[in-house]
Amino acid sequence: MIKIAPSILSADFSCLGDEIKKVADAGAEYVHIDVMDGTFVPNITLGSPVVKSVRKVSDIVFDVHLMTEHPETHIAEFADAGADIITFHSEAARHANRIIQQIHDHGCKAGIALNPGTPLVMLEELLEYVDMVLLMTVNPGYGGQKFIKTSLDKISILKHTLEDNELDIDIEVDGGINAETSKAVREAGANVLVAGSAVYGQADVAAAIKAIRGE
Ligand code: DX5
Ligand code: ZN
After folding, report:
1. Residue of 12, 18, 34, 131 marked catalytic
2. Among 12, 25, 174, 204, which one carries the catalytic annotation?
3. Which atom of ligand 1 is nearest to the CA of 199?
């Protein structure tokens, strides 16, 4: 099943609760929350108090994408704030297997993310422990960037690896996903599609979500 995860990075932060309700009512399965620390990526976005506050407005799945150094120091606070899925970056993790366990111990699903320049081999010993792999399809840090085309091969190789090993985990893609690029990523095997500007930048968010879903 295809799941759409609008990224609040492109939402209007002055009314974040309403912006989350809007995409939940429009049929999105997840809300994607981009946490940037100004070190792992240049930008700074938001922290766990914001997540805790908007948790009150909707039951929708909170898909927290940690773009931070030392992800292990942030798991407990985001789990307590109401995250359902916590994804950390392979590039920031010294003990990735332990971080996955830590996320599970806090009752959340665990995802691991790879930057466009990081090879799939980094996942080899971890695939059987995670619930989701997030393949970045832009370099993380900002919304509204152009989809990196070579990501398509990476998605399909990962999809085949999962099938060959009978692993039922989600492939999430993030960056430059819109009504045009979504078809190719779905065909390559991605099933969780993050979209920021292509959802929040549109007047009709329900139509935008449908278009990305391919309906
Ligand atoms: C980028 C973030 C993305 C971003 C996607 O670093 O991880 O989630 O919001 O934005 P769009 O869909 O506009 O490329
Ligand atoms: Zn993201």
Report:
1. 34
2. 174
3. 12
For the segment 27-86, what is each residue's pLDDT rounded down to a tens digit? 999 999 999 999 999 999 999 999 999 999 999 999 999 999 999 999 999 999 999 999
Q: Which are the contacts of 90, defined by CB distance < 8 A and separation ≥ 6?
A: 96, 112, 113, 114, 115, 118, 122, 123
Q: Tell me, in angstroms, the distance from the centre of ligand 2 to residue 152's CA.
A: 17
Q: List the structure tokens of 90.
A: 């392979």
Is 174 in the active site? yes
CA of 197 to the centre of ligand 1 (A): 8
Q: And the tokens for 74?
A: 């942030």
pTM of the model: 0.98
